[in-house]
Every structure is written in structure tokens, then in C-alpha cells.
Amino acid sequence: MATVPVNEQSFALDIVKTDDDGRLNRSAEIAGGKDVKTSLTGTVVGVDVTGTEKIWNCFQAIGNIAFAYTYSSILVEIQDTLKSSPPENKVMKKASLVGVATTTTLYMMCGTLGYAAFGNKAPGNFLTGFGFYEPYWLIDFANLCIAIHLVGAYQVYTQPIFKLVEDSFRKKFPESGFITKEHPVHIPLYGVLQVNSFRLLWRTAYVIISSVLAMIFPFFNSVLGLIGAMSFWPLTLYFPVQMYISQAKISRFTFTWTWLTILTVSCLIVSLISAAACVQGLITELHAFKPFKFVS
């Protein structure tokens, strides 16, 4: 067994082992101790990044955090599927509490354990950002979990888009059989599935185009942060707060109205700065960008 030397910036100890067949197997181990540099303030200005880069990265990180909490847009959809008893508002309060607590716990664990393992050089994407691909089964299992999660999440988040486009075309072309006619298809062990030609073509094209664009422009952190910054304030904060003010009939310039307004304006400022930071990150990454080769 031979140990491959690691430099001062490396955070993985690669071990190369020859098996009975003479083939090389590589395994990797997260290194702790002297090679991992951590600090209370994170990356060191002048060593790891410049002062300007650190500011941009901090606001870009806020956008990434905001993306994890942009769930308000589907709360109404979920509530519509609930039974009237027990009361929907009580069920949604419990569901929101459990969901937010679970999300916060998992992301905090990911952030703290990731920083403890990789220090100031911790990558934005633990699965692809640091060259640690062994044990292969663990990385494959993590990617499988992400795929299962995204299959469901993709459907939930794109349904409003699908419905908007399909309803618009039905209103514009009510006489078109291609758009309005349903074709029954018998599927064993399932029954009859109603297939619409336009729906099949449109949704397939949407998935293909969005997937190709994601492969062409794989700017993971910047794009994620930009989406989070753009959607967090209006969908998670502004509209819910305004609906609450209207429903509770809170008068202007009262204590509650004042603090809700301060919260709304503060988050708007942070969202705008985060969006600007993510745009700056996209511009920076484009300088080294190569289609289908660049990994962020």
C-alpha cells in the first residue's frame, strides 16, 4: 500500500491499493487536523479571498439559504389537498413547524459538519466540488437521494407553469383537437390514462430544454442563490405578510404593522443585494466557462 502525498491545500488523503487482480483501487478519507484551516470569521481576506470577493460570497450564501425556504408558493396547493377536519390552519401550522425545523436542522448540520471537515476551502457542492468520490457507493447513494427528491419537487414546482400554459392555449385555440382532445390509453395494472397530445409534447419539450440549459450553464451556487433571492421576498415574505395584515385587519402605523413593515423592507434590501451578488458570481464564472465541461 502506498500513500499519495498531499499538499498544504489538500483536504483529502488518497490511498492507492493494488488488489489481487493488479488493478488500482482508490479510496479517500476526509482529513482532519493540521491541514484544515478554520476560523470564526470564515475565509481569510488576503489569503483565501480578497475583501470584495468575501462580501460577494457572503451575500451569495444568503441567497442560497433563502432558496431553502421558498416553500410558501406550494403551501396553498398542499392545503387544498387536506381534509376539513381537523382544521386546515392547525394542520398547516404543525406541518410548517416540523418542515422548517427539519430543514434548518439538516442544513445546519450540513454546513457545520462540512466546514469542520473542509475548513475555509469547503466547496459549495459537497458532492462535486472537492474531488472526493470514494467510497463510490456513498456518493452514488447521495446522488440517488437527490434524484428522488428532485423528481417529486420538479413536478410540484412546475405544475403551475404547465397549467398556466395549457389553460392559455385552450382559451386561445378552443377548436383545436390537438390541444383539447384527450386520448384514452390502456395501461396494464393501472387502468385507463388520458393522454393529451399537446400536453405530452409541451411538457416533454419543457423538461428537455430546462435539462439542456442546466447542463450548458451548471453554475450551481450562483443560479441557486439568484433563484432564492428573487423568489424569497415576494413569495415567502411580502405576499404572506400582506395577506396576514389584510386578514387580521391590522391598522397602519400600529406596533404590529410597523414591525412587519420593517421586516418586509429589510428582507427586500437583503434579497436585492443577494441577487446582485449572484449576478456578479455568474459574470465571474462565465470567464472560465466551457459548455458541458464547466462544473460549479
Query: Which segments are poorly predicted (pLDDT under 50) over 5 or more consecutive residues?
Result: 1-33
Number of strands: 5
Largest sheet: 3 strands, antiparallel
Mean pLDDT metric: 79
The amount of helix comes to: 55-70%
Number of domains: 1
Count of separate DSSP helical elements: 8
Q: What percentage of amino acids are in beta strands? A: 5-15%
Structure description:
The chain is mostly helical. The protein has one domain (36-286). It has eight helices and five strands; from the N terminus they run E-E-E-H-H-H-H-H-E-E-H-H-H. It has a three-stranded antiparallel beta sheet with strand order 1-2-3, with no helix packed on it. Strands 4-5 form a two-stranded antiparallel sheet. Helix 1 packs across helix 7 and helix 1 crosses helix 8. The longest helix is centred in the middle third of the chain and has 37 residues, at 136-172. The chain starts with a strand and ends in a 10-residue tail after the last helix. Mean pLDDT is 79; it is low at 1-33. This is Amino acid transporter transmembrane domain-containing protein. It comes from Salix viminalis (Common osier). Residues 45-283 form the Amino acid transporter transmembrane domain. GO terms for molecular function: symporter activity.
List the helices and strands and how they pair.
Layout: E1 2-3, E2 12-18, E3 24-30, H1 51-67, H2 72-80, H3 88-118, H4 136-172, H5 177-180, E4 182-187, E5 191-196, H6 197-216, H7 220-248, H8 255-286
Antiparallel strand pairs: 1-2, 2-3, 4-5
Helix pairs in contact: 1-7, 1-8, 7-8
